[in-house]
Design a protein that fits this description.
Elements (H helix, E strand, L loop, with lengths): L12 H24 L5 H8 L3 H17 L1 H11 L1 H20 L4 H15 L2 H12 L4 H18 L2 H10 L1 H22 L16 H7 L2 H33 L3 H8 L1 H20 L3 H20 L5 H15 L3 H9 L6 H29 L5 E2 L2 E2 L3 H8 L1 H13 L11
Antiparallel strand pairs: 1-2
Helix pairs in contact: 1-5, 1-6, 1-7, 1-8, 1-10, 3-6, 3-18, 4-18, 5-6, 5-7, 5-10, 7-8, 7-18, 8-14, 8-17, 9-10, 9-13, 11-18, 12-13, 12-15, 12-17, 12-18, 12-20, 14-16, 15-16, 15-20, 17-18, 18-19
Length: 419
């Protein structure tokens, strides 16, 4: 069986292969919970460690710094070593990070915890995509979209439910319980994920050949730019600053603001598998990317400019913005199709590095802009930013979406993956 087999023969192992893909995707869900959870701990963390928006943005973004910086090495390592050991080991590292973060009594220890969380979570999405590419290549965009849907479900869980738990039992205790889930996930990954079969594959190639091939391909860079444009607004707004923005703009309590911000993730969760399925079925990528990008740009602009719009309309705009942004999953499909199968994981690692790197750049950048025009107002030891300050800082997000649209216009369609 090769990496590009269209179907798998029916056998008792098929259920196990699906289970391996599912738990790798659940790992991405777990990673997304941890990715966005700082958004419902903003005031708690500001108060606990006596910091402002810029420092808090960096504390949250440590996850993204390490996650993005090691995506390419992880892609190369999965191509060479397989997803099973890397995914289960990474889940264990992530769990340790949650424990360290929950017990941190200094800002330095909190940074260490977030670093370990990002280090472990870095393997999650690439592992899920690699399992799909190896065992179910004919359904790659669909399974990638479903993995995104599970990840976005993690985004929802990491806001409303996580925020409610923080309100009820505290941020430390909530993270202790999340760590227990990480232990169970580590065991499930080790028991179900299966690596590329040893027979019938191409001869091994030099370690960095796949990386060089993908980096030298202009379509890889266009796909990465589109992914950054679509994901940046979700990670910066939905993943951190959306909750305090809605608390200020609409006078909401934290759980209510978190539930409102999570509507973007519902849109993303519905749009990712749908756009993946339609794109696979019609054999087209660019039209869905351009249309999704325009929808995301329009939605983000409306949210920032008119946050006091009627609530039903705001719900609709948030959902449509998430659905448009979800077409970022096609950036992985485009990059994979323009590069050979022996470079699969390296290619996916490159795209994911840029995608997650958008959060590493935008979260602290927006925090810096908020601090730049902060009027000095504080409540219970935490900084509070005015609506005008938020409007100034968040205006960069629609422009990021528009840059993704521009890149999508130059994507070339390809009938079959490159060899």
């Amino acid at each position: 069986m090769t990496a590009e087999s269209k179907t798998l023969p029916l056998s008792p192992s098929r259920a196990l292969l699906l289970a391996g893909w599912l738990f790798a995707s659940v790992f991405f869900l777990y990673a997304f919970v941890l990715r966005v959870s700082p958004s419902v701990m903003v005031d708690d963390l500001m108060r606990e460690f006596a910091v402002g928006g810029a420092v808090l943005g960096n504390l949250s973004a440590v996850y993204f710094y390490v996650y993005a910086s090691i995506q390419i090495p992880i892609g190369v390592a999965i191509d060479r070593l397989g997803a099973r050991r890397l995914a289960s080991g990474a889940a264990a590292v992530c769990t340790v990070g949650v424990l360290v973060f929950a017990g941190a009594d200094t800002l330095w220890m909190a940074y260490v915890g977030r670093f370990l969380i990002g280090l472990g979570c870095a393997c999650s999405f690439v592992a899920a995509l690699s399992v799909a590419a190896i065992w179910f290549p004919g359904r790659f965009a669909l399974l990638g979209g479903l993995a995104q849907m599970l990840g976005v479900l993690g985004g929802v869980l990491g806001q409303g439910p996580f925020g409610y738990a923080v309100e009820q039992i505290g941020w430390r205790e909530t993270n202790w319980w999340v760590a227990m889930g990480g232990v169970a996930l580590t065991i499930c990954l080790f028991l179900t994920v299966r690596d590329r079969p040893s027979g019938g594959v191409e001869p091994s190639r030099p370690l960095l050949e796949g990386l060089k091939r993908a980096l030298s391909n202009g379509q890889t860079w266009l796909a990465a730019t589109f992914g950054v444009g679509m994901t940046g607004s979700m990670l910066a707004f939905g993943g951190l600053w959306g909750v305090p923005f809605f608390m200020e703009a609409r006078g909401l309590d934290k759980p209510e603001a978190a539930a409102l911000a999570s509507v973007m993730f519902f849109g993303w969760g519905a749009g990712a598998p749908l756009s993946g399925w339609l794109s696979d079925k019609l054999g087209k990528r660019r039209p869905f990317m351009v249309m999704g990008g325009l929808l995301a740009t329009t939605g983000m602009a409306l949210i920032v400019l008119f946050p006091a719009m009627p609530l039903p309309l705001l719900y609709a705009v948030l959902a449509l913005q998430g659905a448009g942004s979800s077409t970022m999953v096609l950036s992985f499909a485009v990059a994979r199709e323009h590069n050979p199968p022996w470079a699969n994981s390296a290619t996916l690692g490159i795209i994911n590095s840029f995608v997650v790197g958008s959060g590493a750049v935008l979260q602290p950048s927006i925090g810096y802009l908020l601090d730049l025009t902060w009027d000095g107002r504080m409540v219970d030891g935490a900084r509070v930013y005015s609506l005008d300050t938020f409007g100034f800082a968040l205006q960069v997000l629609p422009w990021c979406c528009l840059a993704g649209v521009a890149a999508a216009c130059f994507i070339r369609e390809v009938g079959k993956p490159a060899r």
